[in-house]
Design a protein that fits this description.
The structure holds two protein chains of two kinds. Chain A is mostly helical. Chain A contains nine helices and two strands; from the N terminus they run ααββααααααα. Chain A has a two-stranded antiparallel sheet with strand order 1-2. The chains are: A mainly alpha, B alpha/beta.
């Protein structure tokens, strides 16, 4: 596994696209953090259904998440697009090692990106004359939830790319699901209200807001279930299909 | 290291692409892997490397590839000339591929120089010619100095000098004790390079023998005799049990004997010999003879003069 992680580290760090996308993700996070700072005192802003009143968690905004998801999708997307998968499996014939190694390196990079976005937002807040109090459990909880959401979102992009062998589908499908869910919600709200809490983005909203509704399944469990389902199907497909 | 392919089989629905194929690749030899288009060569190589799933197994010194500690020290494969990210510099590509066997920078630079990519190693391979891509692929395969090389069509896109270099390189590599399996359509090149052949057609094994034995199987191994009286000499040779065909005005094609014996018989019969040439079939001829009935995608006859293409 160590060799696979080294392989993945060298793969990720030796292409320009990784740095371009990371920079774009950070710049969007900085932009959103600045925007939140400007309008924060007016009651917060809602983008993509996710409350974004805290500048420090701007790294999980939809635009930054999409750039980060593109990096995640490239883990398998480039393998198939540039026919590298044969070379990779020629070095690491155990496919579980390849899948897990790529997943771990993807999560590491996303974690570093998220940490950088938080640090950048911090600098923006301080530069703008704002103040951030000492550690408080609400802030820490929000940071963890946003970071987890970003990791899950990127994980889904990663898994869909491995499943479909298409980087574009890996990036676009989670976005398309978000749009589809708006339609699905309106169609299902009356005939099947019990179903709507299990839609992924509805669960994401509940999870990110940190609000607990005893009548509904916890947002984190629904999100985790969707991510686990997609990842399992994706892994089995990678494991048993021809390369 | 001995490579044993045992009962390799691959089916796509009702179509059997590779059918119970077994052969051995021995160390110290270059084994040529031949077959017509669509005969299952690439699928076989992919099965051997574990890229495709099928029945059967490939053992490297008695163990499956994934059971070896350092896979890249066991086998280096080059199955696709363009399997690299066009934006990743060639040197970084090789550094990445060296991760499994922990190949150092010095070895990476050594291999880059060996394949002649020193001047472009730090550049992105986006604009590489096919020949340069082949060199990069070969560099990837030999990076960890594996005991086995499996290479698919390595000479495609190479200029004559590069092909000559490739032949020398692979021959030297094999003579140092490595087992080398090469699939190629360049039969003339294969004849110069390989000492053993595995030939398949429609996914089945047709031949697994030495180059010399394979070529000797062709009916084109004969002696051409031009003489003063071909009809007399033909009857003399036929009486001696040789297979003789008239060829041209004064020629005979004689199979199953040597120039020495034919010369003696001609001398004894009083026929003067004007020319006598021992003709050996080429690998190409032998290959065409043996695979003529197992071609999946045979083209029509070449257009004759006066017909439009």
């Amino acid at each position: 596994m160590t060799s696979m992680l080294l392989y993945e580290w060298r793969r990720v760090t030796t292409i320009r696209a990784t740095y371009v996308l990371s920079t774009l993700s950070l710049l969007s996070a900085a932009g959103v953090a600045w925007l939140r700072l400007q309008v924060g005192e007016q009651g917060g802003v809602i983008i993509g259904g996710i409350p974004i009143d805290n500048p420090l968690v701007a790294g999980a905004n939809p635009l930054s998440a999409t750039f980060a998801a593109t990096i995640a999708a490239a883990a398998f997307g480039h393998e198939y697009r540039y026919r590298l998968v044969g070379v990779t499996l020629g070095e690491f014939p155990r496919r579980a090692v390849v899948y897990v190694g790529k997943g771990l390196m993807m999560l590491l990079w996303i974690a570093m990106l998220y940490a950088a976005s938080v640090a950048l937002a911090w600098v923006i807040v301080i530069s703008a004359g704002g103040t951030i109090g000492g550690p408080d459990s609400a802030l820490v909880g929000q940071l963890i939830r946003s970071g987890s959401f970003l990791a899950g979102y990127c994980g889904v992009a990663f898994a869909i790319t491995a499943l479909t062998r298409s980087l574009i589908l890996g990036v676009v499908t989670p976005l398309a699901v978000t749009i589809f869910e708006v339609v699905a919600w309106s169609l299902l709200e009356e005939p099947a209200p019990w179903l709507t809490p299990y839609l992924p983005m509805a669960a994401a909203n509940r999870f990110l807001s940190g609000e607990a509704d005893p009548t509904q399944a916890p947002g984190w469990s629904v999100l985790l279930g969707w991510t686990a389902l997609i990842t399992t199907v994706s892994y089995l497909s990678f494991r048993f299909r021809d390369a | 290291m001995i490579v044993e392919a045992c009962g390799l089989t691959k089916r796509y629905g009702k179509v059997t692409a590779v059918d119970d194929l077994s052969f051995t690749v021995r160390p110290g030899h270059i084994t040529g892997f031949l077959g017509p288009n669509g005969s299952g060569k690439s699928t076989t190589l992919r099965l051997m490397m574990g890229l495709d799933h099928g029945d059967g197994s490939t053992l490297f010194d008695g163990r499956r590839l994934r059971e070896h500690a350092h896979v890249t020290r066991v086998v280096g494969a080059h199955l696709d000339a363009k399997s690299f990210h066009p934006g990743r510099p060639a040197r970084a590509h090789l550094r990445m591929l060296g991760s499994e066997a922990r190949v150092g920078r010095r070895r990476v630079d050594e291999v880059i120089d060996l394949v002649g990519l020193g001047d472009v190693a730090r550049g992105r391979p986006r604009g590489f010619s096919l020949g340069m891509c082949q060199r990069l692929g070969l560099a990837s395969a030999i990076l960890a100095q594996p005991a086995v090389l499996i290479i698919d069509e390595p000479a495609n896109g190479l200029d004559p000098q590069s092909i000559h270099w490739l032949r020398d390189f692979l021959t030297t590599y094999a003579h140092r004790g490595a087992a080398v399996l090469i699939s190629s359509h360049l039969l003339a090149e294969m004849q110069l390079m390989a000492d053993h052949l595995v030939v398949i057609g429609q996914g089945r094994l047709i031949a697994d023998e030495s180059m010399a034995d394979f070529v000797a199987r062709s009916a084109r191994n004969d002696v051409l005799v031009r003489c003063s009286n071909p009809l007399v000499l033909r009857s003399v040779l036929a009486e001696a049990g040789l297979v003789v065909h008239l060829e041209g005005v004064d020629g005979l094609a004689v199979s199953g004997s040597t120039t020495d014996r034919i010369g003696d018989l001609a001398f004894q019969s009083g026929v003067s010999v004007r020319e006598m040439v021992s003709r050996h079939a080429s690998l190409e001829q032998a290959f065409l003879d043996l695979t003529s009935g197992v071609q999946d995608f045979a083209a029509g006859a070449a257009p004759s003069e006066g017909t439009s293409a």
